[in-house]
Design a protein that fits this description.
The complex is a heterodimer. By secondary structure, chain A is α+β, with helices and mostly antiparallel strands. Helix content of chain A is 53%, strand content 17%. Chain B has a single domain, classed as 3-Layer(aba) Sandwich (Rossmann fold), CATH 3.40.50.300. The chains are: A alpha+beta, B alpha/beta. The complex binds adenosine-5'-triphosphate and magnesium ion (MG).
């Protein structure tokens, strides 16, 4: 027994080319799985960041029952927006920023046509504390809302198109963005914007916005269009209006009140604890939800990506295992007489089995470790450079930075080792079952 | 004391589809401790078959076989691993050394794979002594493919003897060697037989080898004819 692991390890180096092929199959599979995982989680990270930092916040607080009837935009389920409540939320560990919003609906018109909208009223002083990237989701050619704005509005850029208004130009071709340096990219984008601004009429458009208070009083105001909002969710580009909080409070009689609090956190890894702590701090009239409960669409996209990733990984894994099983079988055939000799001098069948399994596991481990190292390095390089990608509907500057976690890397190496071990089971069994007389006769 | 080997009525039949090939038809054979015996016979006469049964590598279809007081005829292959390891040394026609192990490692291999291997230093000392005895001392760190045929067979002999077996079986040990080397190998086996009292049983086609044997058995048509050697 004592000698066998050493013998197995040495057999790895014996037919160098074959071990190389086997190891390479594992290495390639591990690298590809890691790259794939890196891109999938990088993309998911961007989507999550887009949602969490740009839109919903990490956590939201509503009046009890709000989320169940969210489809009907229930402004009657409103909550106080007071410094005391803000302070209470802010005091919960891991909370980074808090803001209040009103979500309402109504009709928006440009004088000739009228259409339904979903309104998002935001506290311009606080919004970026909860959603630091909320500002950046305004398309070139307009401006975001800023503190001090009153009778102003951002409208979804597709909504503006349906009003027949000039539309911001497309960005420079993506390949130009890919091939140029950051400075050149900036210049290209700036160039397009300048071109459009020159063309666009100097005057701002005005829309008339009409809505109903929780008590049923209908009201209308005219608002100046300050910019065109973009979102990764097509629906929002067609339907969403963004207004200052005070404007909405006046429009629908909700002075000093909001329909939701949006909360940013320091660390998304501790979301659940923070959520529970908030619920405990606020009491049962409030309900607390995390971003993935509120954005089931994003959650589903990420889940679907993970399913596709798992399927592809599985295929890669099976291919690699087939290669291992094959080469292992070849080396069993090649060593028939040697196996006969081992059996003759008193090595047990179980030990012959172990011999081949250990050999495969060693190849799996080495191949896996090399794959992990190369994959990690490749991901590091790619992430350092960053891959500019166009997220649907956004301003297009997102940099995909693929990465995998250390536990994932370790898991991949372990999977490679046990996979190799499993793939060698049949060839090894075959070796251990050889008839020694036939094996020794084999010239 | 009983015979070292005691075979009675050994038969071996191979089923080949509908026909049955009979390799051994009723072999009775006793071998005493310390004997040096060759088995000769034409090709296909059953020499290898007999040696495989004696070496516990194969089972007889019929008959009884007692090895060193142990009835091994009814025991299965893996069950006999220990018996093979402790009581029998094997020398093969094509040497069958393990290519990734060097000479010393090949020699110690049967002892090293035991469940409770002896102290590594003691084992190495015995390996060195044995290697010296068979003339391989300068080659301990060499791999088998760096050795000549005769040298390889010396390694195989040392490997067969390291376990201090009751019996060394050699199936045509000189068939892959030239005549001078063959003589040297047979001489070595004879000397070891004399010095250590190990029982040798081997098969050969080579008449020059036969003349050295103390006892020569002839197999013909699966039966044994005992003829005196020199
Ligand atoms: N596995 C087997 N299946 C069928 N027949 C076999 C098998 N092994 C041996 N035989 C037959 O048994 C007989 C004896 O074979 P064996 O190999 O013992 O002869 P041998 O004396 O060693 O011959 P050689 O001198 O050529 O080595 C032969 O007729 C052979 O064809
Ligand atoms: Mg033969």
């Amino acid at each position: 027994m004592s000698r066998l692991p050493a013998l197995a390890a040495r057999n790895v180096g014996r037919n160098g080319r074959r071990s190389l092929i086997t190891g390479a199959a594992i290495t390639v599979a591990v690298i590809m799985v890691m790259l794939l995982k890196g891109f999938v989680s990088g993309a998911a990270g961007l989507m999550v960041a887009d949602v969490v930092e740009g839109r919903s916040g990490a956590i939201q607080v509503h009046k009890k029952g709000y989320v169940d009837s969210i489809e009907s935009v229930p402004t009657r389920l409103n909550i106080p927006y007071t410094p005391e409540l803000i302070a209470k939320i802010q005091a919960v560990p891991n909370v980074k920023g808090v803001t209040g919003r009103i979500v309402f609906n109504g009709l928006v018109g440009n004088g000739s046509t009228q259409t339904m909208f979903i309104g998002r009223a935001i506290d311009l002083e606080r919004e970026t504390q909860a959603c630091p990237r909320a500002k950046s989701t305004v398309r070139a050619g307009g401006e975001p809302l800023s503190p001090g704005d009153g009778a102003h509005v951002l409208i979804g850029y597709e909504l503006s198109e349906s009003f027949g208004w000039a539309v911001p130009p497309p960005l420079p071709p993506t390949d130009a963005l890919l091939t140029t340096s950051a400075a050149q990219r900036g210049a290209l984008v700036a160039g397009s914007i300048a071109e459009w601004q020159a063309k666009a009429s100097a005057k701002r458009h005005t829309v008339s916005v009409q809505s109903t208070s929780p008590a049923g009083r209908s009201n209308a105001i005219d608002l100046e269009v300050k910019g065109y909002s973009v979102s990764s969710m097509p629906f929002e580009n067609k339907r969403v209006l963004t207004v200052p909080l005070a404007t909405a409070q006046a429009l629908i009689d909700l002075d000093g009140r909001v329909t939701e609090y949006a909360i940013g956190v320091e660390d998304l890894g501790h979301l659940e604890e923070t959520k529970l702590a908030l619920q405990a701090a606020l009491g049962p009239e409030f309900e607390v939800h995390s971003w993935h409960e509120l954005n089931t669409f994003v959650r589903d996209v990420i889940n679907r990506q993970n399913i596709v990733f798992s399927a592809i990984s599985m295929v890669l894994f099976i291919i690699a295992l087939t290669v291992i099983a094959n080469t292992m079988l070849m080396s069993v055939f090649e060593r028939v007489r040697e196996i006969g000799t081992l059996l003759a001098v008193g090595v047990r069948r179980r030990q012959v089995l172990q011999l081949f399994i250990i050999e495969a596991a060693v190849i799996g481990l080495i191949g896996g470790v090399i794959g992990a190292a190369v994959g990690r390095f490749a991901l590091f390089v790619i992430a350092t450079i960053g891959i500019p990608i166009e997220m649907p509907g956004t301003s297009g500057h997102a940099l995909l930075q693929p990465s995998v976690t250390l536990p994932f890397v370790i898991g991949a190496v372990i999977a490679a080792m046990f996979g190799a071990l499993a793939a060698s089971a049949l060839p090894a069994r075959r070796a251990s079952r050889l008839n020694p007389v036939d094996a020794l006769r084999n010239a | 004391m009983s015979h070292l080997l005691d075979l009675k009525g050994i038969e071996k039949h191979y089923e080949l589809g509908k026909t049955t090939v009979t390799a051994l038809r009723g072999v009775d054979l006793q071998v005493e401790r310390g004997e040096f015996t060759v088995v000769t016979g034409p090709s296909g006469s059953g020499k290898t078959t007999l040696l495989n049964i004696i070496g516990c590598l194969d089972r007889a279809s019929k008959g009884s076989y007692v090895l060193d007081g142990v009835d091994v005829s009814e025991r299965d292959f893996d069950d006999l691993a220990e018996v093979r390891n402790q009581k029998i040394g094997f020398i093969f026609q094509s040497f069958n050394l393990i290519p990734v192990l060097d000479v010393a490692e090949n020699i110690e291999f049967p002892c090293a794979v035991r469940k409770n291997p002896e102290d590594a230093k003691k084992l190495r000392a015995r390996v060195n002594a044995l290697a010296k005895r068979v003339g391989l001392e300068p080659y301990l760190r060499h791999k088998p493919d760096e050795l000549s045929g005769g040298q390889r067979q010396r390694v195989a002999i040392a490997r067969a003897l390291i376990t201090e077996p009751r019996l060394v079986l050699a199936d045509e040990p000189t068939a892959n060697l030239d005549s001078t080397t063959s003589e040297a190998i047979i001489d070595l086996m004879l000397e070891l037989n004399k010095e250590q009292g190990v029982t040798f049983l081997f098969s050969t086609h080579d008449p020059r080898v036969v003349k050295h044997a103390k006892r020569a058995l002839q197999i013909q048509d699966g039966k044994i004819h005992d003829g005196a050697g020199h």
